[in-house]
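tl;dr need the bound structure. longer version: we got a ligand (adenosine monophosphate) that a collaborator sent over and nobodys looked at where it sits. i said id run it. heres the input, straight from their email, havent touched it
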Amino acid sequence: MPVEVDLHLHTTQSDGRLTPTELVRLVAQKGLRVVAITDHDITDGLAEAYQAARAYPQLTIIPGVELSTDIPGNEVHMLGYYLDYEDAGFQATLQRFREGRVDRAQEMVRKLAQLGMPVDWKRVKEIAGSGAIGRPHIAQALVEKGYFQYPQQAFERHLGRNGLAYAEREKLTPPEAVRLIVGTGGVAVLAHPAMLDGLERILRELWEAGLQGMEVHYAEYDEPTRARLAEAAHRHGLLPCGGSDYHAFGTPGEHLPGELGPPMEVARRLKELADANARARRPQRV
Ligand code: AMP
Ligand code: ZN
Ligand code: FE
Ligand code: FE
């Protein structure tokens, strides 16, 4: 069956390399019918994406976001769908996270210089543009300077969670991210959970906080991994979501939109959950 749904995509508003317009064109060409734009800590790509999607009436765009959270020694990403993203409080929170990203990127650039890999901070900011700055932008600057052939290689020893040049920034805990998303009327979905130690405990804790889905149909995962995650999702009553997590990095083997994603039924149920959340959130008249 052709893949029609991709619930995990990035644009130039965060660390993706395609503008929202370019991404919408690509997913429409690939025959996708429901896609979510899930930039890190920013929703500013949505307006342009909706504009571009007017040329493709068969394409539905779900508003989304990806938040980074921390647990000891690892990071946990949380996806939020159908949030009331124009909410001023929510936007102020995202803005604060993005400011934390700037300080943290600067700190990582300092550490890289100490490690003998200087990059120009101005260049990193230029690569990041006006959106949410992230480690892939630093990785690209390192590639430009010839330290690595591909951005992903910079993560192995330097930019990864436990890497030599890693620096922290303000982040939520995973339950806080779930509550932020739910409190903004959204559906909270745990991103790429295969690598998490203690997944069972995490799922129980996040379910309590209001988690409603987790990624299962994630392009990078092989069939046994997807089967294991599907079983866990089922057992915890979580919607099995997923997508390509496409960034257009250009890394060899990068998974493209349309390669793998959840079935259309999952997109339908995601919308039902969002509608039910919105009804529950609306103040009751007495
Ligand atoms: P940041 O938002 O600055 O924490 O960067 C997160 C992004 O960096 C992710 O969305 C991935 O695109 C990329 N990334 C994080 N860890 C790795 C890794 N170990 N290998 C390759 N890319 C990574
Ligand atoms: Zn990313
Ligand atoms: Fe992620
Ligand atoms: Fe992502």
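gonna send this back to them w/ a short note. Residues 8, 10, 66, 245 surround fe (iii) ion (ligand 4) (CB under 6 Å).
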